Amino acid sequence: MPNRKFADGEVVMGRWPGSVLYYEVQVTSYDDVAHLYTVKYKDGTELALKESDIRSQSSFKNRKSQSSSSSPSRRSSSRSRSRSRSPGRPARGRRRSASQSRDHKDDKKKTIQETSLALPVFFLFKPSENNTKRYNGEPENTEKNDTTCIILEQKLKPDLEVRRVLEQYSLRSRKDDTKKEEIYSEKKTFVAVKPIEKVPTKTKELEFGGRIGTFMLILLLPATVFYLLLMCKQDDPSLLNFPPLPALESLWDGRVFGVFLLWFFIQALFHLLPIGKVVEGLPLSNGRRLQYRINGFYAFILTAAAIGALLYFQFELHYLYDHFMQFAASAIAFSLALSIYLYVRSLKAPEEEIAPGGNSGYFIYDFFTGHELNPRIGNFDLKYFCELRPGLIGWVVINLAMLLAEMKIHNLNVPSLSMILVNSFQLLYVVDALWNEEAILTTMDITHDGFGFMLAFGDLVWVPFVYSLQAFYLVGHPTTITWPVAAAITVLNCIGYYIFRSANSQKNNFRRNPADPKLANLKFIPTATGKGLLVTGWWGFVRHPNYLGDIIMALAWSLPCGFNHILPYFYVIYFICLLVHREARDEHHCKQKYGLAWERYCQRVPYRIFPYIY
Questions:
Q1: Which subcellular locations apply to this protein (predicted)?
Q2: 278-287, 387-396, 506-515, 585-594: lowest mean pLDDT where?
Q3: What whole-number distance in Å separates Cα of residue 504 and Cα of residue 133?
Q4: Domain range summary for the chain, segments of one domain joined by +
Q5: Domain 10-58 maps to which CATH number in 3.30.930.10, 2.30.30.140, 1.10.10.10, 3.40.50.1820?
Q6: Which of 42, 248, 286, 340 is the most exposed place for a label (fewest CB within 10 A)?
Q7: What is the pTM of this model?
Q8: Rounded-to-integer distance, Cα 562 and Cα 574, Å
Q9: What's the whole-number mean pLDDT along residues 148-172?
């Protein structure tokens, strides 16, 4: 028996998962390990199907010819037998005459013959969606502001409505009518308009330069951190003035490493406290939803109280500044050890818990991107914890330490205006992230990326030690700015923050409750997944308005450092590159997920991040 029955590129009929309906699909690939075909529907939806769920088109043509050659007596007898239990039968007081029933049947037969077999299953529940109009040759009208359609997708349709549409589009033969009641009893099968998640297959499209690129990043990222910190310590931090390399033994301090471990486990303890609400994340591939405790802001308050107590008892917080390189080395060592642990444990993870983008089969690539999607120790989610807690809160603590170090080194009674602006802007950013902690559950980091070296290093090293670069720079290179300049920079930061927060709030509110009267003015493009793509408000201005706000704020954080050196602007330059790359990843992911709806969204909103530029 051959290994596979259908070839790549072959057009076949694929059964929609969870239903009895077949649609025209094209085979794109075959997984020899999982024995699954990856097929593509006409609307762009891609799913993985078993061979038993795929049939050749010839079998459907034969069935159609057999059905059309049936004798009129047989068809009439079938009609009479099914009349007593037909779900589309009208009420007793409104029964149709025999001639009306016959005309209706002929019209229905004609409709079925003219209907394309490639109609996606979600048309059964949204006959007014834009894609339906394209297949039926009707004029397109892709924008909607009737938010009730999304609500109906998430609730059970009335039985009569479901049966009526099934009667119209069903491809089953008449002899299968005897099994209708068994089908109707399985309501949940038909109501699941969300695409069925496929079993993770091998990652074929490698990002970040593939194996060679990820290997180089593992080496270059720690080196970049050390280079930036060494440059800030120099009197002349110009790019051509390369800093002398320190002795390796000077980068390691056991006491500093102990302080770092203490910090990490204190934040873990705060995370485990039974305070704050518990929410559910997005559905996993097996349909299960993980639970998350939202208490990041409480952890920040407890941390602030602990830091205040240390300062009250005259603890020298500028110890962080004096041993900043050693703390960075400790964080790098810890993130590397954590990444090794994560990869080893991921080798025993179930298939449904493997990250979509970290299953290439190449050790170095999967080690970097993360092989397991949601590694947990009991109910303790390692990725979710590291995403916001040790690094993000640590960033604020480091900024405070730099502020105190500036006052001590330069004998200042109050911090400089530049240092106050940097601390205030970045404090606002962190507090906002912790206050809106629940929003992170829908980000690519949580829903798509595995937890490997990329996120572990980014959360524990890059965020606290690179994002605090402006404050670290100002300690050794004080910059004086006037109050008008400070006011202008503050206005710029406020504009960026307003765009960032209002865009994110608009998106999150629409996802949580599309029927909110406050959102009644928003228009959207419906998609096959049941979600809508906003085409008004900030999301009709550019595709990623939150990225635009982020970049404006990043510029405002660097401006207080003056223009003597480019070093403090590393953050904004890096951030633009990061968000452009992330936008490209998101673009590719959304195109696969939403198909034609995403193409229409891109036509409606042509600019990605920068209006009229990019």
A1: Cytoplasm; Endoplasmic reticulum membrane; Nucleus inner membrane
A2: 506-515
A3: 31
A4: 10-58, 208-479, 481-613
A5: 2.30.30.140
A6: 248
A7: 0.66
A8: 18
A9: 43
